[in-house]
Design goal:
Helix 1 crosses helix 10, helix 4 packs across helix 5 and helix 4 packs across helix 10. With 273 residues, the chain is an alpha/beta fold. A six-stranded mixed β-sheet has the order 2-1-3-5-6-4. The chain has eleven helices and twelve strands. It starts with a strand and ends with a helix. Helix 1 links the parallel strand 1 and strand 2. The protein has two domains: 127 residues, Rossmann fold (3-Layer(aba) Sandwich), CATH 3.40.50; 137 residues, NAD(P)-binding Rossmann-like Domain (Rossmann fold, 3-Layer(aba) Sandwich).
């Protein structure tokens, strides 16, 4: 069985390592390729992929662009407005968003639940934020504040987002004036290797939140996370989410449920988290 990751630049992707571990632990003979595709070749590539692959993952910058080539889009992917997993089945190209499930499993694994009637803040409004925001909306949160450098531009960018009315967009300066809440999630690249000396917010602001999640996983502990930890808050990075979304994709492709323990096993084996 053959699978792949579709993107523009994939040189540092951990996906092959993760999926090959999944294959080994499930006793499956599988192969996982990296497919770097130029933007002008994307449409033709999708039409050819089903001749070779059972399914593919999709990463930056194609999570939205691939949707027009699909014959089915799952409810969560439609609501989010992005697809990261395609399953070729019986002549159909079926699109899903397993980032949504991956984020949910990350929160569950780190006991950052329940979120019902809680106040949550999300930093950033890029592609990574979409699945996070949809999951938070579906979890019944009381309020979701999205901090971004340009709230007006972000509001326009999310104009097709079904949950837009439930989001409040603010600048980072406006966020600093707020009291805090149950959870703060960093979806920006600030603090990612090699620029590890950066944090999207100062320590005194991060400390106002009971839990801090950073989707960055390199370094294992970002400055943002260290600020929260110093204040005695619970923290976690995004590596468990990366593994969890890969396992969710395999569940779709293989048509079977995979025990959650496999996610923890792989995360521990690769990154020790």
């Amino acid at each position: 069985m053959e699978f792949a990751l579709l993107g523009e630049k994939l040189g540092h992707s951990l996906s092959p390592q993760i999926h090959n571990l999944i294959f080994r632990k499930l006793g499956i003979e599988g192969k996982y390729d990296l497919l770097e595709i130029k933007k002008q070749d994307l449409d033709d590539a999708i039409e050819r992929l089903e001749d070779k692959y059972i399914g593919v993952n999709v990463t930056i910058p194609y999570k939205i662009a691939v949707m027009k080539k699909l014959t089915f889009i799952s409810p969560e992917a439609k609501a989010i407005g992005a697809v990261n997993t395609i399953y070729f089945s019986k002549g159909e190209r079926r699109g899903y968003n397993t980032d949504y499930f991956g984020f949910g499993r990350l929160l569950e694994h780190n006991a950052v639940t329940p979120l019902e009637n809680k106040d949550v803040v999300v930093l950033g409004s890029g592609g990574a934020a979409r699945a996070v925001l949809q999951y938070l909306v579906d979890s019944g949160t009381k309020s979701i504040t999205v901090a971004t450098r340009s709230p007006q531009d972000a509001t326009k960018k999310f104009s097709n987002f079904e949950a837009l009315p439930k989001l409040k967009f603010v600048s980072y300066e406006q966020l600093i004036e707020q009291k805090g809440g149950a959870l703060i999630v960093n979806t920006t690249p600030v603090g990612m290797y090699p620029y590890i000396d950066g944090s999207p917010l100062p320590q005194e602001v991060v400390a106002r939140y009971a839990s801090a999640v950073d989707l960055i996983y390199n370094p294992v502990e970002t400055l943002f996370m260290s600020y929260a930890k110093a204040a005695g808050r619970s923290t976690c990075n995004g590596f468990y989410m990366l593994v969890a979304q890969a396992v969710a994709a395999e569940e779709i492709w293989l048509g079977r449920e995979i025990q959650a323990g496999l996610i923890a096993s792989i995360a521990q084996e690769i990154q020790g988290v």
